[in-house]
Amino acid sequence: MHPAVKIFLDQLSYGVRVDGGARDDDQSVVSVLARVYEKARNALEYRADHLVRRAAIERILKRLMVYEKDPSGLAKLLLIELKWARYVSIAELEQVSEAKLAQTLERYIKVFESGVPREWLMGVASAEIEEMFNLNRDFGKFTYFTFQVIKQKVKVTDPNLDLLVFMAVDRIYSQSDDEQQAYHILQLAGGNINETWRLVSLAKNSPLLNRLQKFVSSQMGALLLLRDMYFADPGGFRQMIEDKNNFSQTASKVLDKQLRLMGERISTAAVRSVIYVFLTKMVVAVAIEMPAEVWLFGSVAKWPLVANMLFPPALMWAVTRQISLPKGREKEEIVNRAWLVVNNFEALAKEEDGLLEKPAQRRSVWYTIFSGLYAVVFVATFGLIFYGLSKIRFNFAAQVVFVFFLSVIAFLAHRIRQTAGIYRVKQEGKQRSSLWDMVWLPILTAGSILNQGLSKLNFLAFTFDFILEAPFKVILGFIDSWVQFLGTKKEEVVG
To answer: Which of 85, 163, 98, 91 is closest to 129 using CA atoms?
Structure first.
């Protein structure tokens, strides 16, 4: 057995729980109201389930720090709100004391004036706090093992290659967000916050990072399957990987289950993305369309308005229906690949599908010509869309809203397709393009720009965070204190 595999296997606990265990079944008015509020608030952001708690911690911290500067006070209030909303389980609370949480917060507060952006620090602090509650330590072990697998297949020279490979693996394999990535780099940097800020900034500005992320995505199927197999049966994992027949049978069953779950996640993600667009982007769109139509035309055109309401879910349904998951021979390839990773690790470096150095390229005349051609295609694509809409009597305001929804939904649907493709067997450098890409790519580009830009204009989220949340949580605190007071008085009477 290869030393890297042996070290990895020796580090696993072989009995860890995937989730945090049972939560306090608190059905008090405060707890119920807090959970309802958090569900409503989380619906306003398009975020994966495993990132919700970290984002909630960051949001709560930013609000609390407006009026509470003492780390001990912050820790106490944070724990109260996390318990209200049932973000933490009983077992998770047992391993994170108020004093330990206060020490963590104090460490970040001390460097607020160091030149590192405060908002970034709060994000990293939230990632560390979220991981403090996490009972599952084996998940990270798989991330570092995957780093070892990917690194030996990367034949690129770069002084920061280890950093870039780890960042790519952490993003694609572990699905970490920016804040979690920064915290993981902080751990590797020995807790030096300023050095972490430098390293993260360096990695984000590297042109190699996107290429590495794409390569990591092409290698994910077998590595994800190994992790899924472990958490399906932690105690039997080590014995399982020593017998090929047992391994293949177990791997096939686990893969089938994961593909069924992936199908369910695709449907859920499609619904959530449409809700996300309606709750966030529609506010902007409707604010443009309806006043503009009244001002320009004297009334609101009903047919275009209905079409713009029905189009997003219809487009999302059509795109997600085209998503296919691995079948037959491709599933066998994934299983065989997973066996190769743990039992013939040294052979991975010799494979032909590694990431190689790109030959130095100068911007040729052809590159300039194709760039100009793409610009023409971009303009022509949207020109034809606007022209077609005008022919079916969409006024200009309705056309803008339609194109807006088309671009954003197309981009979100593309992200769902990418997520669904993590188990597929892909070959780096062999992606095929079609004439359809000439039309679809400009729409995706516009959707990406709109999604990034307008995420900062999430008016409903702003309303919740800065207008509703603070007074709402004050009211919850008052109700909670009142209930505790009544409980005390009741004990006095009974006593």
So the answer is: 98
